[in-house]
Design goal:
The complex is a heterodimer of chains A (139) and B (1311). Chain A is of the alpha+beta class. Chain A has one domain: Beta-Lactamase (2-Layer Sandwich), CATH 3.30.450. Chain A has three helices and five strands, in the order ββαβββαα. In chain A, a hairpin with a 5-residue loop joins β1 and β2. In chain A, α2 runs antiparallel to α3. Chain A is globular and about 40 Å long. The N and C termini of chain A lie close together (11 Å). Chain B is built from 34 helices and 46 strands. Chain B starts with a helix and ends with a strand. The chains are: A alpha+beta (139), B alpha+beta (1311). Chains A and B meet through α1 and β3 of A and α17, α19 and α22 of B. Chain A: It is found in: Cytoplasm, Perinuclear region. Chain A: Keywords: Cytoplasm, ER-Golgi transport, Transport. Chain A: Belongs to the TRAPP small subunits family. Sedlin subfamily. Chain A: This is GL18033.
Amino acid sequence: MSTYYFVIVGHNDNPIYEKEFSTVNKEFRKEDHRHLSQFIAHAALDLVDEHKWKTANMQLKSIDRFNQWFVSAFITASQIRFIIVHDNKNDEGIKSFFNEMYDTYIKHSMNAFYKINTVIKSPMFEKKAEIFGRKFLLS
Amino acid sequence: MRATVGLMLSHGSVEPVMSRPDYEQNALHHSSLLVLLRGVGPSRARILQRAFEKVRRVNSIKVNDSSGNTRTIWVRFIHDHPVEHNDWGDFQTHRRLLGLVTIGKFDNQTELNELCRQHESLKVRYGSTLYESRAIFFGPDDPNVLETIGEDKSTASRRLQDDYTTPSNFKSQAFFYREQDSCSDLESRIGDFVSALFWVLESRRLERSREKADKVSLLLAPFEKRDFVGLDMESRNNRKRCVGRVMKNLADLSLQAGLVDDALSLYHNANETLRSVGDSLWVGATEEGLCAASAMLLYPQMREIETLHRNSSLQEAGTSPLRHTPEKWRASDATKKVTAPDSTTTAAANANGEVAVQQQQKLTSNSSSCSSVSSLVTTGNNSSASDTPTTSSTTTSSTSTISAAPLSNQRNGELPGNILKAEEITNYYRKAIINYSKYRHAATIETEAALKASRICIEQNRPLDVAMFLQNILYINLSMSEPERVKRFEIITDLYQQIGYQRKAAFFQRLAALKHVQQGSQAPDWNQSYRLMLGSFTGYRLCLDPLEVLENAAGWPALQIDLVQSLITAARRLGHSALATRHMTFLLQTQWDNMSPTEQSEMAVQLQNLSAQCEGSPVPLVLENGTVIPPANLTDLPYCLDFQVKDLPPHLRPQRIKVAKADSGPFLFTPIHFNSVDRRDKKKDKNKIAFLWVQNDLSEVCVRLRNPLPFELTVTDMRLLTNGVVFESLPQTIVLQPHVPTYVPLHGTPIETGQLDLQGYSTHTLGVKSNCRLKHMRGRSFPPNYLVEVIPALPRISVKTSLPQTATFSNLNSADIVVTSASLTLYNGEFSSCTITITNESATLPLEHLEVNINSNVEQELQKKIFRIDEEALLAKLPVPPQGSIEFVVEVYAEADFVCPQPPPSSVHSSGPAAGDYGSSLMSVSGHASLPSRVGSPQHRRQEPQTSSFRSTMSGGQPSLAALSLQPGPSSLGSQYSQHIEAQIRLKYSGGEALTAGYCRQCAVSFNLELLPSAQITSWDVLPAEIASQFYLVLDISNLTAQEMSLNYTDNKNILIEAKESCRVPIPVDRCSLEQVCAARAAEVAENLERELCFRTQLLSFNDALSKLCSEHIAERVKINWLLTGTDIAGIASLRGIVLSQSMVDLTAVSPLQWSISFQDTPVQPHSELVCTVGQRALLSIQLTNDSLQPLKNLVLSIKFYQDYLNGMENYNLETRVAFSGPNRIAIPILEKQEQTQHTCSVIFFTPGRFKAGIECSTNPQQQQQPSARSCPSATNIVGGQLDMFSSSYDEQQAHVWKFIPPIEVTVVEQ
């Protein structure tokens, strides 16, 4: 049983895409959970911003934790931050997931009708996230 | 926060073990002497704040020790100290309380005794560790010596001590001061006190240092006591342990005693010793000690900040200390990183300098050593220089280079080689923490160590390490009370804020806030919770001003909403409903777009509930701690779609009074220039409204609002927000249905003249008052404001007419200025009048200017005939006083064209004379079956003989009814049908100041005039009268009314016409004199010469002119008065516009040919009886004179005898009865002006009877065979007049026939 909260954060600390992946059935999940994850992800932004200058790597690995939750991050070239709040170790899966999502994000941002830093509402993006989430995070 | 700590500490003073971490501690406190500084006695201690500060300021002294070296001794004053913390004094000596200072205020002996008692009890409490104590007492002011205090303090203080004596059991040293005393010697006394402490400490250190290594006892941390029970203390390991621990203890003492170098080496030794025996706890302690000693040398400025910090927090004890924490050396933003250290270091250096200056004054200068140390470390420690930018305080060193240079060199030699390098400190701390973490009971120590480490890392500008240490604190398993936990979060928050991790800080601040009020908490502290929540705003990119939040549009909406909601809850629980309302408003205003519709309506309902307790209004709220909560306005609830400034109603709209342009000399202003000026003006002032408002006149702004909520929204007290001139807004209340855009008019009255600045409107909805300014409405292209010019007040009038109002308003231009209407129905030719009453409605302004003009849908000429106003009489009645009124009369005449227009040439001529045929064709052409067809009526038959000669429209042979043209001719005033004339009587008026400013108002009375047909002349002809000077105008007049009409057509002749009937009347009219014709001709020629038109046109226009002249001649002379019998409706029908054919003109005008005929040498008189006998020759002599202005050409004089049977038949076949001698047709090629020609012939009648002779003169009848030869004049004869009619009616080819009338009648009798 593991849960993942994935969020893409824009330049103004604004979430532009949020998604949760969980092996737990929806009925058992607590409503509060997502909220807490959001707070943790937000608090981790300071560390993301610190780490991104310390490494040339886009993968920032696990950079923060709060109680049982870990925060892994990925930073794109345009300073868009990918963050996953998770409660079990899965470095490889997260790394792959980030890479795939980055790819998807780049493609989406190529869309002339998409304005950088705004909420992503594409069903295609959603589907991809779903697929990669299942493939790399939940498997 | 410090105040909070103090509060908490004083509450829970009975703690079992050291479970309460000292969160304020930093590494440098290891070297300080701990002194308890307490206010005693009743809570008046706050009055003594100044004394507290003075004492606290003495945080270090310089002491010359026995060997002559100068040592710097540091003191740390604390407010509270749990006794059990002293137990850890062996483990870390700086935890021991060494001194006690109490400050108290007394007014009498009893109170002094109480102060002494409290002091003593504190002494007893900390007796085990206390070295020395002092009491500072402030006595009452002696009014007698008040003025002498300044001069002679010693006497005053002596007196105080004389007056009051301390109890006998009070053994401490006490200082007495008056309350208002400046206590100038206090600091030196505290300095003495500290040095006393030092000497005791120094003796202890020396004692310890002289202890024999094999004699030392085992020092223990409090929780270790059980562990060592029954162990062999003499074992090698334990011996080492004892030695190591004592060494560490000695190091602690040395550090406190100012011997940093000694301490360092001792720590190193102890560390090695203890490590070898695996005494992890104490190893950790030595490592921490090493760090502390190194930090003391590396970062002396930390102490200064500490001092500064403390002072500031003390001064503003009530406020949150977080707000005053200096923003740490770096911001999280990487770009700032480069510049940040410089500026902040400068700031810090300045701060240092400030403190240093103070210290220099109080104590012998030591601050230079601080700065010099830092500069020296930088040079000596090249590798760490880059990592520790803060240590390279270049500014500081530059200020102190000269004085400190030799000293620093000196110190450089002394700087121990075993000092930890900057980056090592972190490692050592890490190790220490790991060591501590092995002991459950050392959790407090571990926590403190982590905090100290993070403070050092802050100093070193290593935020990641800070984060690491702080992170670690959370995982230290420390059993602590909830307040302690909260306190821990707050400290973490503080430290995160110092490194600029606002988001992290906000996270923990929020956690702390939640902990304060979490479920199950005994005493939820909503106040603290609220304070912390508010503090975390910045971390979530929120600020209190909604405008700014909307402007930035940054942050995580879900979290922001959550935070504000928690804040609302806290405010509500605090009972501060104004705040709750304010925050709820803020939430709705700023997060509207981020909420789902359900959330929006939920929040709106919540706001309504909250505001029921306390109404929200747009004023800033000030919290107890001075925080100002700026107003929040619901600018988009309801959502404003449109904001239109409305012009005044058209009839009240001010206009410029048009003045005749003054002669402005040769400079002309062209309209083009004018426009361009206007355009430029518009560009300059986009928000400037083009129209004007009038002072004291109700003005309107129309706002289109949409209610975005799913329920009805009531907006009350909606008003306009204005600036500039005084404006009285009228409140408006509306109920908005969900999602339906609604127009809301907002009214108000400008009270002054000048420029009015419309900024928006204020609302009161959901219980919240809001000022909705246009400039704050986002996403719509509103200008920030609208500027309207307000002109001086204008009078207002009301207009009444004596006539009934119309049901419909006119559709004339500018129908909107119509204020009232009048309707009138008149028969054509009728007179009437209308009285218009103007009342000046304004209360103060007179009506001084009034202009009346009439505008209608008929031509100006006609209009002048219909309406007449005596303007002069009207103007004489001005001015109209306020509330006064005037009247004026409009005369109305139902002007109409009574003459039936000429039928188009294509009409009826193809049809035969058969009446039936004609009738049908008439129907088919005109389609007006309603008109009575009089064809075949007996009356008509009776008149037929006469009509045969009618030529009004066609040849005389045709039935004259053809002339009854009933075409609804396109000409406007066909009088067969009722006709509507719409007119506006426009009134321009002004008065008062506005008049001088050149403004007026315009209103109008709509005048609806219905003209009913009365009499109509359907056809007409001209017949020769009995005398040559007259002719008969024969008119067919029909009565188009529904009533019997009495027609008066000459002076004394009346005729009655039944409704819808017509009758024929002959009217004798004087002929148009030749002089008139000549005059007309001359005028015509002159005019045409002027125009240089061709001859052809001249001739044409001459004919036209003549025709017109004749027409006018008739119209002038013939007036037909009609009266509808049984009513008093009467009128005059004029013959204006009657059209005469050429032959009629010939009859109408006096003939150019003067006939002079004699029969049997007797001149022929009209109607005279001529008698001759059968077979006898009768001489007929005709003399013609051309009286006209031009020669007459191609004249044919013809004489024809005929017999008139008086039944319509004329017999011209008289060959057997009459014979001529001589021609009966004589051609006269030309008859010059005034020329006479004579023709004489003889006639012989063969049979008796009555004969008539038709003598006529026609122009060129020979050429009738070539009618199409237009170059030839007189192409047609009269009989072929049809052709004539078909072609253009009057041109130069027109044949003229002049008859001698009446025909000569000759009665032939038998011989």
